[in-house]
Request: fold
Amino acid sequence: MSELSNRYQKVINRIEQACDTYQRPKESVKLLAVSKTKPIEDIVEISRLGQVAFGENYVQEALEKIAAQPELEWHFIGPIQSNKTRPIAENFTWVHSIDRLKIAQRLNNQRPQGMPPLQVLLEVNISQETSKAGLKPDELSGLCEQLLQMPNIQLRGLMAIPQVTSDIDQQRASFARMRQLLESLQTEYPQAQLDTLSMGMSNDLEAAIAEGATMVRIGTDIFGKRDYSNL
Ligand SMILES: *Cc1c(COP(=O)(O)O)cnc(C)c1O
Reply:
């Protein structure tokens, strides 16, 4: 087995182990392989092992990969500039990083007729870091209500990138707050399909699964360290 296949299998094993430990069905956690900066050959290799969902952060880089592998499921997970919403609306299945109304409106208007609604998540600044993107918890409910009116996007839940820490209790505390935020939106909007918590990366996927993540976004531990010098 190649090193890449090996690392991929290790990540699958970690997810299954965490599901066992925290008594969650294996099918309840979906793996998003975060392939930013990585070559299409690596994506193809992982897809042959059964991986379908891939996450990208940079529009131009992603468009080339989507053109090469259109049958895969592509998720946009990076910061969104409003002048880049059209290619995102036209080419992705999911968007994890909506942090303001204007972006949601543009994606809704620019999603081509005939495509299924764009599946979207609201990004929460769960560690309240001033430098980070994402909504404050008290902004979620109002925005949620507005997004639920939009016919060409379907709001599915929340995403977060908590402050980096190796303290597992601190990791779990952030993810637990995310779970509570989703639960209160589910109570407030019972007719909506709010079933997705996108949280957990290479360093904290176990803590995220412990607290109810339904999608973990793993880059480094599958593809190896990233090199940004060619972007
Ligand atoms: C790059 C990135 C990841 C992957 O992080 P790793 O630590 O490499 O697993 C996950 N989520 C987002 C939003 C990212 O930008």
User: Anything to note?
Assistant: The pocket of pyridoxal-5'-phosphate is lined by residues 34, 36, 57, 77-78, 161, 201-203, 217-221 (CB under 6 Å).
